[in-house]
């Protein structure tokens, strides 16, 4: 989640820079258009025009690069979110299995207790029926049988 937040913060920064560069490019294009419309062959205007054309080309390249980076980061964020969701689903499934196993253990423990009670009851009946004629058997002997 920390990585996702960091990537989202980076994405927001890149988007802000993207908007800023688009604005600069538009301003440069507007100034270039204005300089072209102004009459005259002044050398300074031609130099400025060439400089602005270079800047516009550079800004376009940067914007293209930023677009690629944004798309890449967005893919990474989507993949991380998908992984988190998959992990949560796996954890929930395992929790459900654990809960089911706990319930089965509780049921088996209750059954086991009931069986012990029945065995004790049967042992007591046998001991009382046999009377004093046969030797008294220990509970463990009956349980092992």
Distance between the termini: 59 Å
The helicity comes to over 70%
Residue share in β-strands: under 5%
Q: What Rg do the Cα atoms give?
A: 41 Å
Protein name: TUFT1 protein
InterPro entries: Tuftelin_GRINL1A/MYZAP/CCD68
Region (Disordered): 124-145
GO cellular component, one term: I band
Structure description:
- With 145 residues, the chain is mostly helical.
- It has three helices and no strands.
- It has helices at residues 2-37, 43-130, 139-144.
- Helix 1 (2-37) runs antiparallel to helix 2.
- The longest helix has 88 residues, at 43-130.
- It is rod-shaped.
- The model is unreliable at 132-136 (pLDDT under 50).
- Keywords: Coiled coil.
- Residues 4-118 form a coiled coil.
- This is TUFT1 protein.
- InterPro entries: Tuftelin_GRINL1A/MYZAP/CCD68 (IPR051375).
- Residues 124-145 are annotated as: Disordered.
How are the SSEs ordered, and which strands pair?
Layout: H1 2-37, H2 43-130, H3 139-144
Helix pairs in contact: 1-2
Fill in the keyword field for this structure.
rod-shaped, 3 helices, mainly alpha, 145 residues
Summed up:
It is built from three helices and no strands.
């Amino acid at each position: 989640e920390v990585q996702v937040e960091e990537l989202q913060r980076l994405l927001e920064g890149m988007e802000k820079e993207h908007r800023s560069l688009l604005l600069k490019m538009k301003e440069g294009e507007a100034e270039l258009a204005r300089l072209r419309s102004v009459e005259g062959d002044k050398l300074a205007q031609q130099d400025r025009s060439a400089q602005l054309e270079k800047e516009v080309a550079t800004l376009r390249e940067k914007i293209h690069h930023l677009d690629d980076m944004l798309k890449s980061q967005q893919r990474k964020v989507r993949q991380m979110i998908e992984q988190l969701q998959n992990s949560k689903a796996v954890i929930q499934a395992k929790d459900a299995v654990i809960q089911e196993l706990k319930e089965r253990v509780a049921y088996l423990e209750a059954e086991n207790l009931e069986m012990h009670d029945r065995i004790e009851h049967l042992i007591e009946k046998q001991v009382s029926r046999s009377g004093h004629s046969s030797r008294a058997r220990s509970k463990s002997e009956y349980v092992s049988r």
